[in-house]
Amino acid sequence: MAESDDTTGEMSDGLQVELFHPDSDREPGDTNIQAMGFDIHPVVFPVALVLIALFIAVTILLGDQASEAYTALFNFIGTNFGWFYLLVVNLFIVVLLFFAFSKYGKIKIGGVEAEKEFSDFSWMAMLFSAGMGIGLMFFSVTEPMFYLNTPPSYFGAEAGTGAAAASAMAQTFFHWGLHPWAVYGLVGLGLAFFSFNRGLPLTFRSIFWPLLGDRIYGWPGHVIDLVTVFATLFGLSTSLGLGVAQVNSGLSYVFGSEMLGVANIPTGTTVQVLLIAGITAIATLSVAAGLDGGVKRLSTVNLYLMFVLLGFLLIVGPTVFILGTWVEGLGAYLQNILGLGFFTGTLNSAANGTPTAWTVFYWGWWIAWSPFVGMFIARISKGRTIRQFVLGVLFLPAIFSTIWLSTFGGAALNLAIGGGPVQTQYAELGYASFETLGMFVTLNQYPIGVVSGLLATLLVITFFVTSSDSGSLVIDHLTSGGKHDVPRTQRIFWAVTEGGVASVLLIGGGLTALQTAAITTGLPFAVILCLMCYTVYLGLDNEYEILESEEFAETIEELTDRENVDVTTSGDEMVTDIREGDDAASGD
Questions:
Q1: 60 CB contacts (<8 Å, ≥6 apart)?
Q2: What value does the mean pLDDT of the chain take?
Q3: Cβ distance 417 to 165 under 8 Å?
Q4: What is the pLDDT of residues 348-376, one digit of tens each?
Q5: Burial of 548 (0-12, 13-18, 19+ CB in 10 A)
Q6: Which of 31, 128, 129, 383 fits as disulfide partner to 466, beta carbons 3.0 to 4.6 Å?
Q7: Cα–Cα distance for residue pair 106/570, rounded to 1 Å
Q8: pLDDT digits (tens, 9 = 90+) for 113-140
Q9: Nearest-5° angle of CA 228, CA 231, CA 235?
C-alpha cells in the first residue's frame, strides 16, 4: 500500500463513488488544522489532549487515593454492570454470524472492483500482533494455573485435580476464543464498510451515518470519536502495562539467581516506567516508518517468533499431554460455551469472583481494545468479502489462541497436577507474584530454559512495539478527522503519549488501575457498539439494494461491452467482482 494513497474506496471508473457514496461534499480531514508537523481535527485532538492531561495530573496528585479509587470503581462496575457486558458480547457473536451467512456475506469491502492490499499471511500476521499478543504471553500460563488452584465455580471441580485442569482450560479458552474476536470483528467490519464502501472518514463517527447523516461532522460525531480515543488509549495502556510488568519480571528471573545469575535486576514501578520509556523509544522509530515499513514488518517478525517459541515447547515439552489438553479443553469449551457466556454468578453464592474478576474484566478490556484492533483490522482488510472477513477474523485467530494456550498452559499443568515443581513455585510465590513470572517458571523446567526465557522476553517486547505502533496509527486516524495518512510527527507524538499514560496508570495503582481503566472506558463504548449493530445492518442492506438495482445493472452492462473487463457474479447473479486491463486478461 502506497504511503501517499489517501483514497477511501474510490474505483477506477468512479462506480463506487457515483452509486454508493453518500451525497455529501465533506471529505476526511477537510477542516483540519495543519501546523508544526501536525494535521489535526480542530475539536477532537485538542479536547482529547486536555482531558488526557487532566487525567494524568489528577492521578499523580491523588497518589495512594487514586489506587483506592481505582479498586472501588473496578468492583462497582463488575458488580453492577457485569450482566450487561456478558449479554452484549453474546449479541455481537450472533450479529456477526448473521452478516456473514446471510445475503450480505457476498458484499465486498471496498466495492466490487476492490482488490486485496495485503496477502493472507501478512493480514493474519497483523491480526495476531494487534489483537492478542501481549495478553496471550501474560496469561497463557498464569490463568490456567489460577483456575487449577481456584476452579471456576461454574464447573464445580476440586482444586488441584485433573477435573480442575480441564475446567481451567475451558474457562481460559472461553476468555480468549470466539467472544473477543467477535467484538473485534464487528468493529472492524463497521469501520471498513463505511470507510471503503461509503467513502467516509476512517473514524467511528462514520458508522453512524445511517442515523446521523451529515451530523457526524458535528458535535455528535465529535463525542463519538472522543469516547473512542479514550477507549483506545486506556485499552492499549492496559496491555502495555501488563507487557512491561512481564518484561521486568522476565529479565529479573532470567538474569537473576534462578537462571543465569549474572545480574540482579530489581522489579517494581520505577524499573517498569524506565522500561516503558525505552521500549516506547523503539516503538517511535517503527511507527515513524509507517504501516508498510514498520508495523507490517514487525508483525511478520512477531509471528515467526511466536511459531519458533510455540514449536520449541511442543517438541521439548510433554507433546502428547499438550495435544491431549488441547483436544479435551476444546471439547469442554465448546460443550459449555453457551452456559459460560451467560454465567454471572448471581444465583451461585460460591461464584468465587470468576465472572467479575476475570470475565467482566476481559469483556471490558476487549471492548475498550476494540476501536484500536477493529480500526486496524479495517485498515488492512480492503478487498475481502464480508463472509471472508468474518470467518478469517472470528475463527482463525481464536483457533490459534487455543493452540497457544494449550501449549503453554498444558506445559505448566503437566508440572503442576499432583504437586509438581510449577505448583510448588505457585504456592511459594502466591498468585500476585506468579502472575508475571508464570511463563518463565514453566520454561525453566524444560531444556535450554535460559534461551526460551530470553526469546519469550524478546517476544513480549516486540508485541509491545507493534501494539504501540498500531495504536498510534489508529489514534492518528481518530484525531485527524479520519485521514488515512498523517504526518510522521503526529504518529510519534501519540506513541509517546501512550507510553506516558501507561506509566501514569502503573504509578497511580499498578495492575488494578490498568484493569479499571479498561473496563471503565469499555462501559460507555459497549452502548455505542450496540447501536453500531443496527447502523451496520442498515448500511449493508442499502448496499445490497443498490447492487440489485436497475441502475447498477445498466452500469454493469455498459462495462461488459468494453474490452478487457471481466465481471464475476454469484449464483443469484449478484455482481461480486469487476476487473479490468491486465488483471482481467490474466485472471489474477
A1: 504, 507, 508
A2: 82
A3: yes
A4: 655 555 666 788 888 888 888 788 788 87
A5: middle
A6: 129
A7: 8
A8: 878 888 887 787 777 665 566 778 888 9
A9: 145
Reported as a single tens digit per residue, the pLDDT across 138-180 is 889 999 999 999 888 888 888 888 899 999 999 999 999 999 9
Torsion of CA 274, 275, 280, 286, to 10 degrees: 140
pTM above 0.90, yes or no: no
Q: Tell me the C-alpha distance between 426 and 392, whole Å.
A: 37
Contacts of 296 (CB under 8 A, 6+ apart): 118, 122, 125, 126
Q: Is the dihedral of CA 427, 428, 429, 434 positive or negative?
A: negative
CA torsion, ordered 257, 263, 269, 273, to nearest 10 deg: -140
Please state, in angstroms and rounded to a whole number, the distance separating the CA atoms of residues 464 and 244.
Answer: 8
Q: For 265-281, what is each residue's pLDDT tens digit?
A: 888 888 888 888 888 88
- Per the listing, cell 463504548 goes with 525
Q: Give the C-alpha separation, 165 to 32, whole Å.
A: 55
Output b/e per residue, 519-540; b: 16+ Cβ within 10 A.
bbbbbebbebbeebbebbbebb
Sign of CA dihedral 376, 378, 382, 387: positive
pLDDT number for residue 464 = 76
The identity of residue 3, as a single letter, is E
| 43, 222 Cβ separation under 8 angstroms | yes
Q: Which residues pair with 385 in a beta bridge?
A: 108
- HEC secondary structure over 285-304: HHHHCHHHHHHHHHHHHHHH
Give the helix ranges, DSSP H, for 264-395. Answer: 269-288, 290, 297-316, 319-341, 361-379, 386-394
pLDDT, tens only, 393-446: 998 888 888 999 999 999 999 999 888 899 999 999 888 788 888 899 999 999
Give per-residue pLDDT as tens, 385-399: 999 999 989 988 888
Residue 67: CB atoms within 10 Å: 18
Report the Cα–Cα distance between both ends of the chain, in Å, rounded.
18
User: Could you tell me if 349 and 81 are in contact, meaning their C-beta atoms sit under 8 angstroms apart?
Assistant: no
Please name the residue that has the C-alpha cell 468512479: 14
Contacts of 569 (CB under 8 A, 6+ apart): 575, 576
- Environment class of 557 (CB within 10 Å of its CB; exposed 0-12, middle 13-18, buried 19+): exposed
- The residue among 115, 116, 114, 118 whose CA lies nearest residue 20 is 114
Residue 138 pLDDT: 81
Place of cell 474457562: 171
Residue 587 has pLDDT above 60, yes or no: no
Q: Which residues contact 528 (CB under 8 A, 6 or more apart)?
A: 204, 224, 227, 228
The rounded percent of the chain whose pLDDT value lies above 70 is 88
Q: What number of CA atoms fall less than 13 Å from residue 342's CA on the CB side? A: 3
The number of angstroms, rounded, from the C-alpha of 561 to the middle of its chain's C-alpha atoms is 45
The rounded distance, in Å, linking the Cα atoms of 221 and 229 is 12
Q: Is residue 283 within 8 Å of 468, Cβ to Cβ?
A: yes
Q: What is the C-alpha to C-alpha distance for residues 218 and 235, in angstroms, rounded to an integer?
A: 26
- Give the pLDDT score at 8: 39
Q: Compute the distance between CA of residue 265 and CA of residue 275 in angstroms, rounded to an integer.
A: 12
